[in-house]
Amino acid sequence: MATEMDDERIICIQHWNRRVKEERLRYLVTLLGVLLPAGMLLMFFLGALLGVSMISGNALG
């Protein structure tokens, strides 16, 4: 009787751990999916701004 309860508890804990890992993975993938394009856009705009400032600086100088 007690071992059946323990087995059920162990299975429940394993299932819970798996769910937690899946949630963490999903969160990580979502975070990467959001931050990566945002970072790429930011770098693109910074590069464009730098390029424009260099061109205008060369044109003025």
Number of helices: 1
Share of helical residues: over 70%
**Beginning-to-end CA distance, first to last residue:** 88 Å
Mean pLDDT: 88
Strand content: under 5%
Quick description:
Keywords: Membrane, Transmembrane, Transmembrane helix. With 61 residues, this protein is an all-alpha fold. The protein has 1 helix and no strands.
Q: What does this molecule look like?
A:
- Helix content is 97%, strand content 0%.
- By secondary structure, it is an all-alpha fold.
- The longest helix has 59 residues, at 2-60.
- The radius of gyration is 26 Å and the shape is rod-shaped.
- The N and C termini lie far apart (88 Å).
What are its keywords?
61 residues, 1 helix
Topology, please?
Blueprint (H helix, E strand, L loop, with lengths): L1 H59 L1
